[in-house]
Amino acid sequence: MATISAKIYKHHKKSDGTYNVKVCIFHKGQRRYINTNHYLVRKQLTSKFKIKDRFIADLVERQLIDYRRTVSELGNKLNSFSSEALRDYLRDKDADIDFIAFCDEHVRKTKLEGREGTAHNHNRIKNSLIDYFGRQAVSVTEINSTMLYSYECYLKSERKMERINQLGKIVVINRPAMSEIGLHNHMRDLRTLFNEARDFYNNEDLEFHRIKHYPFKKYKLGRAPLTKKRNNSIEDILQIRDCITEPGSRAELAKELFILSFLTCGMNAVDLYNCTKDNIIDGRINYNRTKTKRKRRDDAFISIKIVEEARPLLIKYTGKLQERYANYGTLDSALSKGMREICKRTGLDGVTFYWARYTFANLARNSCRMSKDEQPKESFA
């Protein structure tokens, strides 16, 4: 049985002469402590360092009663708690959760796992929520079904956002209303982040729920809308390749990496960003596809023969993208802006960098009769 009591220690005197009231949890032969918000001076304490101030004593006693009631309600589940776990449970059960802070930490961990694309998408959700609420801290309780419907309307409208560019300066970006598919993907990623928060803060085994609500029960995403055809014809590819761009511009970067992706069987931008000279062996590019390498037993290993048309572009960009861009996210942003410029110059409608991958796959399937079941790990000759 756990016992809960208030403790004040003489040797814990602060530099300002005060003593902090601590809650002592004794469980399974170990003591753990929770600091309270109460600080007392010596005259508020008895000679045995008990609380003499009745106002503070009543406040502390209410807190102890609440903790003892919680312990009693645990019943047999109490045996599953270590002393540290019980302390954390009592300390955090009513604490507010900053959803933005959680997103920051989740994005950091996702980057460490090498999931740059996912981290980039989730960071975009976090920044959008900051724009919507107009502040850097958002309680998880504010992410509710009413908010989601209002947030959806916000995303469907034109909006201004402040961002820091690669030079460290604040710039104002005008964003158009999200497309139907863009909105669906955005809300899907927000739901993923909310589920991650629930998994992190809730303990289903112990029926411990710090996040008690689930707004996506009422707010339904539904099926993803059908996307328009996202592949180009050979004529379109040649038009992109031959588009005149200024040396060193984003348009040139987007054009050349688009063609390089097409020539390397749809290599993703993040994999081009991570590619170094070490990935090029005996006339082939060998790499592990970032998006799926943690989902496959072979770490999504891919080996691609380098065709002659790809060689000058590989020489130009291999190992250089990391010098030009601090992270994949900034490269992705540059590619988006560059492809929009390419579309203006060529008259193509809505072509993005990822279309290079779809175009290669479509041609491989329909023109070269490659099976759709072809395993990505196998080399393309």
Estimate the global geometry from the Cα principal axes: elongated
Strand order of the largest sheet: 1-2-3
Radius of gyration: 28 Å
Separation of the first and last Cα atoms = 69 Å
How is the biggest beta sheet arranged?
3 strands, antiparallel
What is the level 1 CATH name of the largest domain? Mainly Alpha
Query: How many helix segments?
Result: 13
Name of the CATH architecture of the largest domain: Orthogonal Bundle
Count up the domains.
3
Task: Compute the average pLDDT.
Answer: 88
How many strand segments? 8
Description:
This protein is α+β, with helices and mostly antiparallel strands. The chain folds into three domains: 3-92, no CATH class; 99-217, no CATH class; 234-366, Intergrase catalytic core (hpI Integrase, Chain A), CATH 1.10.443.10. 44% of the residues lie in helices and 13% in strands. It has 13 helices and eight strands. It has helices at 54-74, 83-92, 99-112, 116-133, 145-155, 180-201, 234-241, 250-263, 269-274, 311-317, 321-324, 328-346, 355-366, and strands spanning 3-7, 19-27, 30-40, 159-164, 170-175, 280-281, 284-288, 301-305. The strands form three sheets. Strands 1-2-3 form a three-stranded antiparallel β-sheet, with helices on one face. A three-stranded antiparallel β-sheet has the order 6-7-8, with no helix packed on it. A two-stranded antiparallel ribbon has the order 4-5. Strand 4 and strand 5 (170-175) form a beta hairpin. Helix 8 (250-263) packs parallel to helix 13 (355-366). It is elongated and about 90 Å long.
